[in-house]
Specification:
By secondary structure, this protein is α/β, with parallel strands linked by helices. It is built from 26 helices and 17 strands. Strands 10, 11, 12, 13, 14, 15 and 16 form a 7-stranded mixed sheet that branches. Helix 12 packs across helix 13. The chain starts with a helix and ends in an 11-residue tail after the last strand. About 45% of the residues are buried.
């Protein structure tokens, strides 16, 4: 086994021994390692999904060489003594081990401190949104969201690295526990015993990451320069680390600009705190700003008092959820202009890329651009109710953005924005069948715990808690109400029980009889993009015919999905997009649940992206769509603005064939304009009960939801009740 792989195993053992005492609930967190892989894109990667830690070392030779040639020389004085050539090999191995130990703590601290819950992740996203939006008010909505997604992991890291530095220094308990474990294992170099992690170890990862290459954006080295100032106690090492990251920026930023942005960002941490916040954490704003100036102006000679004061106050406002998000907003605003709009920041397990990769079709944070997509969903969840108009406008800004670069990640983000917009704004269309209806019946209620508030307590206050009730609550729910934050501070979460009704359904006549297949036939011609009331170039949310089409589709799907979930049935969905001759597109078939819940599945991509050409339905597409249906009841839904450019007779013949299929229903929606072909369908609908024609003359008529859609299957195989 390679020595670096051995060091990784040793570090994991050290880390587990410490966690067993400090955070026993996480002591069994699984760690996944990897075999060496010379073809891997990166030499190493550390990440967590909050269930396991991935400690992947792909190129141990590269890591060892970088530590020997770059890191060791930079960190020689980090242990407080000079290292001679004889001890350098041992010094390098210790430094690698200690870096791994820090990295294990770093990943553990994500679920412990940031983001410690989905709610925390969403509030951080909203804070980044406010900070970036205020800093760059003219930035496009897409770029704002991409910056949030590209920087959020680095911002999470800043918080937890600050917390780790605080807890592992200043004679705090974690520092003492690490020293005990190192002493027990007799860690040392030659005659020198090592009793603590090396000063500046938090920056070691970044030194290795930037060795021999240029950073993706200035955001990375600028924030790493901030790391060197804050997370290093020795003045000489602090100055050397700062110079290392400053050199990586080169001429891309002037000294004056760098000074301004770092000082403004650090001061931004307290910028939005009110008087009560400042008093709570005993922060003197002038003193804070003076110490920031001292730290930056002379990092080598900065007093221990100034450095300790800044770390103490920054950690406390980040610990406290009542101030965390205000601090993030102020911290990120000065840095916003340096964040890339296309590349995620090169930090630990973040997914990197140049913005051109295809990635998985679905929204997933573990793919290029996935952070931006998850951030958009978080913003909608966090801001949806309080700022519904603002968030709808934000979604439409992204949905309608066709500017370059039209990378796959930007296309996925656009599809997600369209999907979220119509999920929020399309009104369900009432649907009935002249047979059975699922009617909700309340059977009773069930209780669930809901967190209502948190209190921060000292050791003395801890004794006054109702421990019997806390124990009973943990036995019932598995939720721990008390969390130790520091050796001197605890958080006590208060929960209340909420009652939720349990519903079931019974069937009554004249309700909805679910199909086994739903086939959407969508006219995406240029005329469907007309008659909107929105801005030039705006399609989604504009009130145009295609916008109405999307409202019809989502309105029908909402109703069908609600019934499908209650009736434990999951119909198949197929989408046909027709416009230019020879380009009628028939999607794959997927289930209704997946169709609705995932924004970038094949049918939804075909549905949400119009061709904008002529109105030509390729005749073979009718039977191709039908061939992708499973046996059973099928509903064909046409949404068009009334006319076709190819043979009307041939198209009518295909619709007549569909109507003649057993267990088939046809719904035809004419958007605004009722042309010659639509009139033929309307006359045909008058002759058969399973063909229904609907005409919306304007968008407001559709939004009134006054139309009751009728699904009646063909007489050929109607089931009698």
């Amino acid at each position: 086994m390679h020595p670096v792989q051995e060091d990784l195993i040793t570090s994991e053992r050290i880390w587990r021994e410490i966690v067993l005492v400090e955070e026993p609930m996480f002591s069994r967190t699984p760690v996944r390692r990897a075999d060496p892989d010379p073809n891997a894109r990166r030499p190493w990667s550390f990440s967590t999904n909050n269930n396991e830690i991935k400690a992947l070392v792909f190129k141990p030779d590269v890591i060892q060489k970088t530590f020997e040639e770059v890191v060791a020389d930079l960190y020689q004085k980090s242990y407080g003594f000079q290292v001679d050539d004889q001890d350098k090999a041992r010094f390098v191995r210790n430094l690698i081990q200690d870096t791994f130990t820090y990295l294990f703590f770093h990943e553990l601290f994500h679920p412990l401190y940031c983001p410690d819950s989905a709610d925390d992740r969403k509030k951080v996203a909203a804070a980044l949104y406010r900070g970036i939006r205020k800093a760059e008010p003219h930035l496009s909505d897409r770029d704002v969201n991409n910056k949030i997604g590209n920087a959020r992991n680095a911002v999470w890291d800043f918080l937890i690295d600050d917390i780790f530095f605080y807890l592992s220094n200043f004679n705090n308990k974690l520092e003492r526990r690490i020293a005990m474990e190192f002493e027990r294992r007799n860690k040392g170099i030659g005659a020198h015993k090592i009793k603590e992690l090396p000063d500046g170890v938090i920056g070691t990862w970044d030194v290795v990451e930037l060795a021999g290459k240029e950073p993706n954006s200035l955001f990375y080295p600028v924030t790493r320069a901030m790391y060197s100032l804050l997370f290093t106690r020795g003045g000489e090492l602090r100055a050397n680390l700062f110079d290392y990251f400053r050199q990586k920026m080169g001429a891309r930023i002037s000294d004056a600009t760098l000074e301004q942005v770092i000082k403004e960002s650090l001061n931004g941490i307290i910028k939005h705190l009110d008087v009560d916040d400042l008093r709570k954490h005993r922060i003197n704003p002038k003193r804070f700003r003076d110490y920031v100036d001292e730290l930056y102006d002379d990092p080598k000679q900065t007093s221990d008092q100034a450095h300790a004061y800044l770390i103490d106050k920054i950690t406390k406002v980040f610990f406290d959820k009542t101030t965390r998000y205000k601090s993030i907003e102020g911290f990120i605003a000065p840095l916003s202009k340096f964040i890339s709009t296309t590349k995620e920041e090169d930090r630990h397990g973040s997914q990197l890329g140049d913005g051109s990769e295809t990635g998985d079709a679905q929204t997933d944070p573990n793919q290029p651009g996935g952070g931006a997509e998850e951030s958009l969903q978080d913003l909608v969840d966090e801001m949806g109710d309080e700022a519904s108009d603002e968030i709808s406008s934000f979604l439409l800004g992204i949905a309608n953005d066709n500017n370059n670069p039209r990378t796959d990640r930007n296309k996925r983000l656009s599809n997600l924005a369209k999907d979220l917009y119509y999920k929020r704004n399309a009104r369900p269309l009432p649907i009935q069948s002249p047979r059975l209806e699922a009617v909700s019946v309340e059977l009773g209620k069930v209780r669930r715990p809901v967190k209502v508030e948190s209190h921060f307590l000292t050791n003395a206050e801890l004794m006054n808690l109702p421990w019997d009730k806390i124990h009973d609550f943990f036995s019932q729910t598995g939720i721990s109400q008390v969390t130790r934050l520091t050796p001197y501070q605890y958080r006590y979460d208060v929960y209340e029980w909420e009652e939720i009704p349990i519903e079931d359904f019974q069937f009554e006549k004249s309700g909805l009889e679910l199909p086994d297949n739903v086939v959407f036939h969508f006219d995406t011609s240029g005329s469907m993009l007309q008659d909107g009331n929105g801005k030039p170039g705006m399609i989604y949310g504009s009130g145009c015919r295609f916008d109405a089409l999307c409202n019809v589709a989502y309105g029908i799907v909402k109703t069908l999905l609600n019934a499908a979930r209650e009736m434990n049935k999951n119909p198949n969905v197929v989408v046909v997009n027709y416009s230019n001759a020879g380009h009628t597109v028939v999607s794959d078939a997927i289930d209704l649940e997946t169709f609705y819940e995932t924004p970038n599945n094949n049918p939804k991509q075909i549905m949400l992206n119009p061709q904008g050409g002529s109105t030509y339905y390729d005749i073979p597409a009718y039977q191709l769509a039908q061939s992708r249906c499973v046996p059973g009841k099928t509903v064909h839904i046409f949404v068009a603005d009334g006319d076709l450019d190819n043979d009307h007779d041939a198209n009518m013949k295909e619709i007549q064939k569909l109507a003649a299929h057993p267990n088939t229903s046809i719904l035809y929606f004419a958007m605004f304009h009722k042309g010659m072909f639509a009139q033929r369908v309307e006359r045909f609908a008058d002759t058969l009960p399973n063909v229904n024609f609907y005409h919306f003359s304007h968008f407001s008529q559709l939004q009134s939801a006054a139309t009751n859609v009728l699904i009646e299957y063909s007489e050929a195989s109607r089931t009698r009740h």
